[in-house]
Amino acid sequence: MKYVIICKLKNGSTIPAFAETFNSAMHIAEMFIGGEFTKRVEIVKISTGATTRYIY
Length: 56
Prior knowledge:
By secondary structure, the protein is α+β, with helices and mostly antiparallel strands.
């Protein structure tokens, strides 16, 4: 697991997903972004204790 995709919904709920490659993470994020109730999507890259966030 190298990437965690976090989808935050308008009602305050959170849906997590996991991916091994950035390409896979982007595909998952695109599915979340197209959702009717999606408020925000984050892709978090996890490596050696550091995180990099991509927010859409």
